[in-house]
Amino acid sequence: MKNYVKLIQYPISTVFLPKAVRVFSHLLSVSTEQRWKEAQLELKGLAPTPQEEWQRSLAFVGLGAADKAAMSRSVEALMRSGAELVANTYEHLQKFPETATILGWEDGLDPQHLEERRRFFTVWLARTLGMDTSDEFAAYLFSAGKYHAGHGPRQIHTPPTYVTASMGMVVASFAQDLTKADLSSQEIAAALAGWSKYLSVQLNLMLFGYHVAREFETGNLPIPIKVFGTLRPILGKTQVIVCVNPQDTVSRALSKFFNYYPEARPHALERLWDTEEKNQSEWLEVVPIYILRKGWRILLNGRELIYQGGFEQPIGEQDEISIFPPGR
Fold this sequence. Notes:
It is built from 13 helices and nine strands. A hairpin with a 2-residue loop joins strand 7 (297-300) and strand 8. By secondary structure, it is α+β, with helices and mostly antiparallel strands. The two termini are 30 Å apart. The chain has two domains: 15-40 and 217-324, Beta-grasp domain (Ubiquitin-like (UB roll)), CATH 3.10.20; 51-215, Orthogonal Bundle (Globin-like), CATH 1.10.490.
């Protein structure tokens, strides 16, 4: 039987605690019946949200006030070269055979598509030069990664090799532009150090979104997930198709769903913290788990999962999952 410790906004996702915490855990645990229900309807191993991954990565590279101050002194010079960077980027993509084929430009440019691409790049560049570290920008980069996986309006798949190389070319362009600026060598070096940190974190977020999207469509068993109520305007859809493999569980399908649509988590799921033995030692590892919020229901083929073995119920061909908010 599970015993959950509810630690709202806990600062880290993994920590080690002595076994004495079991006593405290029992004191905070919910009723036996409620624990049983939660254990049937719990999700473990969800990926971090884009915002969590963003903040973790920014902290890891140590992007601090000194970096931002150095970067800010270079912004004016980089802005002057912004239009040239945008134009040169797509000229290169058109001339390079592999990327021209990916974009569908092997027989010539599509003016409308080029305009869309330039507009997207310009918006990204403006936010980048503004040193945007907001959670909203994290969601934007995560979505860009999904677009690179072929999940955008034009469904163009851009392999991560070219995403990574393109980010490297941006760093190289910044370096070239700053050599023409009225800055000392020390100022240029400090600015480039900051931009390298910042752009590497952006790249990580885009690749994160890319891999989540690819995982979403991996499997030869398409499972419809229907959403109702408040989730519909959030997702902009009434149904999505997630791919799994035969004998995967409902948990697997839901994990892919909530990884792909992290914006749905705060509405349908509540994050708690569970304890696990760490290498059969005297320590416990605190790990995040997610359970359904009160009143929310998830059905498999029209029947509530709590009566069908919970989230670990195997899922099969022609099965269908439905997610209902309270009152539906």
